[in-house]
C-alpha cells in the first residue's frame, strides 16, 4: 500500500534562483535556507513520486488539470534565464489513478497530454510554480517521478474532496510519495510593492499561517471572503487540496520560514502528522524508546498499561518504519522478561538502538517513525504443508541454530519463500535436518 510520507507548503518566487535574482535573492536567505531544509528531508525520504499542486499550469474555470504524458519539460525562459531547464518523468500510473478516483467522486479533472493540450488551447510544460521547488529539490534528490496538478477555480469543498481522491489514489498504489502545495501568500504586503497594497494582506498571511500551525481546517474554510479577495494570493486553493490529502489526520504546521521582503508572502511549512496512540502496546513502544533516548535508561511500566500486559508472558517483536521503509526490528523467540509490557519496553529500545542493520535512532527521528508491536502466540510443531505465510510466522531450528520469520510480510507470498528466508537467517542449509514451528501474531499498529 502506498503512503504519503511528507507534506509541505512551498512558495515559488523565481527571484530566489541565483540565475534570476542575480544577488537580490540574498534578501530572502531565510526562504532559501528553508527550501534546502525541505530538499534535504525529501532526499532522506527517497520518495518514488512527488505530487505537486501548482497555481500556474493550465488553470480551468471548471476542472482540475493533471499532466499525463510520459514526461514533461520546462525552463525559466519567461524570467530571462532560458539556461535553467527542468525535466521530469510523469508517474502516469498514479496520475491515472488520481483521475479515476476524482471521476468516481464526481470532481471534474482532465488529463493533459501534449496532444490534448492543443485541443484545450493550453501548453504542456512545467510552470514556475513547479520549477522553483524542483530547483532546490533536484540539487539534493532527483530520482523521482512527478504528478503535476494545476488546481481549477472550483468550490473549496470540491478541491478538498479532490485532495481525498489523491490520498485514496496513493493508498491504492505501491508508491511512497511527497506532497507539495505550491503557492505564494498575499501579493499586497507593501506600499510601493509589485502589486497594489492592501491592509488585508498582512492579516491574511498571519491568519492562514496560524491556522495551519494549529491544524485548524475549519478555521481555514471559514476565513473572511473579503480578506481572501483583498489579499491577492495564489496559495489557498493549493492548500485546500493539501488539507483534503490530510483528511483523517490530526496535524500541525511547522513554519520553516516566512518572509514578505518583496511585498509577497513566502511561507515554507512542513506538516507534521500527530501520532494517534490509541492502544497501549504501540504507545508503550514509542514512549519506551523516547525515554531511553532522552534519559539513557529503561522506563518503568506506566499506569496506562493493561492488566493483561502486566501478567501475560509472551515473545514480542517491535518494528520501526520510517517513510514506509524498515528502520529497525528486534524481537524475542521466547519471552525473556516477566511480562509483555517489559518485553515491549526492552525490545523497543533494542529495535531503535541495537539493530545491526541500521544506525541508532536519534531523538529527532521519533516523529518520523511508525511503530508496530507483534505479540507472538505459543509456537507449535508444524509440517511444510501446514504453513501459510500470510497467517503463520515460522521458527526453524537445527541444533543451536534457529531463525524466525514473522507472518504477512510484504514480498513473502509462498511457504517456499518463507521457509527459504527463515533458513537463510538461521544459517541452516536446506539439506540439513531441521524442525519447523509455526505461530500467529497479534499485531498492533499506530493509526494512520
Features:
single chain; 448 residues; alpha+beta; Protocatechuate 4,5-dioxygenase, Chain B; Glycoprotein, Type 4 Pilin; Dna Ligase, domain 1; 3 domains; eight-stranded mixed sheet; 14 helices
User: Poorly predicted ranges (pLDDT <50, ≥5 residues)?
Assistant: none
Helix content: 25-40%
**N/C terminus separation:** 12 Å
- The CATH superfamily of the largest domain turns out to be LigB-like
Alpha-beta content class: alpha+beta
Total domain units: 3
Looking at CATH, which topology of the largest domain would you report?
Protocatechuate 4,5-dioxygenase, Chain B
Biggest pleated sheet: 8 strands, mixed
CATH architecture of the largest domain: 3-Layer(aba) Sandwich
Query: How big a fraction of the residues is strand?
Result: 25-35%
As laid out across the biggest beta sheet, the strand order is 6-3-7-2-8-1-10-9
Number of strands: 18
Count of alpha/pi helices? 14
| Overall morphology | elongated
Top CATH class of the largest domain = Alpha Beta
Give me the Rg, rounded: 25 Å
Polypeptide structure, described:
The protein folds into three domains: 3-273, LigB-like (Protocatechuate 4,5-dioxygenase, Chain B, 3-Layer(aba) Sandwich), CATH 3.40.830; 276-373, Glycoprotein, Type 4 Pilin (2-Layer Sandwich), CATH 3.30.700.20; 377-448, Dna Ligase, domain 1, CATH 3.30.1490. It has helices spanning 18-21, 29-45, 92-104, 114-120, 128-140, 156-172, 199-214, 217-221, 225-231, 236-245, 280-295, 307-311, 340-353, 415-426, and strands at residues 3-10, 49-54, 64-67, 71-76, 81-89, 109-112, 145-150, 176-182, 251-259, 266-273, 316-322, 325-331, 369-376, 380-381, 393-398, 401-405, 435-439, 441-445. An eight-stranded mixed sheet has the order 6-3-7-2-8-1-10-9. It has a four-stranded antiparallel sheet with strand order 12-11-13-18, with helices on one face. α7 (199-214) crosses α9 and α11 (280-295) packs across α13 (340-353). The chain has 14 helices and 18 strands.
Amino acid at each position: 500500500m502506498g503512503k504519503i510520507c511528507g507534506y509541505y507548503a512551498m512558495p515559488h518566487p523565481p527571484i530566489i534562483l541565483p540565475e534570476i535574482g542575480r544577488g537580490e535573492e540574498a534578501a530572502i536567505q531565510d526562504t532559501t535556507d528553508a527550501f534546502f531544509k525541505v530538499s534535504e528531508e525529501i532526499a532522506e525520504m527517497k520518495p518514488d513520486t512527488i505530487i505537486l499542486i501548482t497555481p500556474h499550469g493550465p488553470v480551468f474555470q471548471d476542472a482540475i488539470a493533471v499532466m499525463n504524458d510520459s514526461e514533461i519539460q520546462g525552463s525559466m525562459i519567461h524570467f530571462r534565464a532560458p539556461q535553467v531547464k527542468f525535466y521530469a518523468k510523469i508517474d502516469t500510473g498514479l496520475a491515472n489513478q488520481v483521475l479515476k478516483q476524482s471521476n468516481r467522486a464526481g470532481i471534474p479533472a482532465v488529463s493533459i497530454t501534449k496532444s490534448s493540450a492543443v485541443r484545450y488551447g493550453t501548453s504542456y510544460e512545467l510552470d514556475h510554480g513547479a520549477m522553483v521547488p524542483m530547483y532546490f529539490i533536484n540539487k539534493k534528490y532527483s530520482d523521482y517521478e512527478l504528478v503535476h496538478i494545476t488546481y481549477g477555480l472550483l468550490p473549496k469543498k470540491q478541491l478538498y474532496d479532490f485532495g481525498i481522491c489523491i490520498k485514496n489514489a496513493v493508498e491504492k498504489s505501491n508508491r511512497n510519495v511527497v506532497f507539495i502545495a505550491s503557492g505564494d501568500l498575499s501579493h499586497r504586503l507593501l506600499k510601493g510593492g509589485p502589486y497594489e497594497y492592501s491592509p488585508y494582506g498582512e492579516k491574511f498571511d498571519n491568519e492562514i499561517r496560524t491556522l495551519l500551525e494549529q491544524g485548524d481546517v475549519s478555521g481555514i474554510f471559514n476565513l473572511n471572503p473579503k480578506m481572501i479577495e483583498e489579499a491577492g494570493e495564489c496559495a489557498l486553493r493549493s492548500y485546500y487540496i493539501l488539507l483534503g490529502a490530510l483528511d483523517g489526520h490530526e496535524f500541525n504546521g511547522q513554519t520553516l520560514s516566512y518572509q514578505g521582503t518583496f511585498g509577497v508572502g513566502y511561507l515554507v511549512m512542513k506538516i507534521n502528522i500527530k501520532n494517534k496512540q490509541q492502544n497501549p502496546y504501540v504507545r508503550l513502544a514509542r514512549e519506551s524508546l523516547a525515554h531511553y533516548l532522552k534519559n539513557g535508561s529503561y522506563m518503568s511500566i506506566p499506569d496506562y498499561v493493561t492488566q493483561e500486559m502486566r501478567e501475560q508472558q509472551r515473545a514480542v517483536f517491535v518494528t520501526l518504519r520510517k517513510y514506509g521503509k524498515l528502520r529497525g526490528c528486534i524481537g524475542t523467540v521466547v519471552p525473556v522478561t516477566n511480562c509483555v509490557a517489559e518485553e515491549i519496553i526492552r525490545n523497543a529500545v533494542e529495535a531503535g538502538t541495537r539493530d545491526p542493520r541500521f544506525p541508532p535512532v536519534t531523538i529527532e527521528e521519533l516523529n518520523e517513525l511508525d511503530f508496530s508491536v507483534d505479540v507472538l502466540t505459543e509456537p507449535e510443531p508444524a509440517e511444510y504443508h501446514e504453513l501459510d505465510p500470510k497467517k503463520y510466522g515460522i521458527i526453524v531450528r537445527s541444533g543451536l541454530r534457529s531463525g524466525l520469520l514473522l507472518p504477512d510480510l510484504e514480498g513473502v507470498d509462498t511457504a517456499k519463500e518463507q521457509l527459504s528466508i527463515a533458513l537463510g537467517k538461521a544459517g541452516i542449509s536446506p539439506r540439513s535436518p531441521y524442525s519447523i514451528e509455526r505461530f500467529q501474531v497479534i499485531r498492533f499498529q499506530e493509526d494512520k
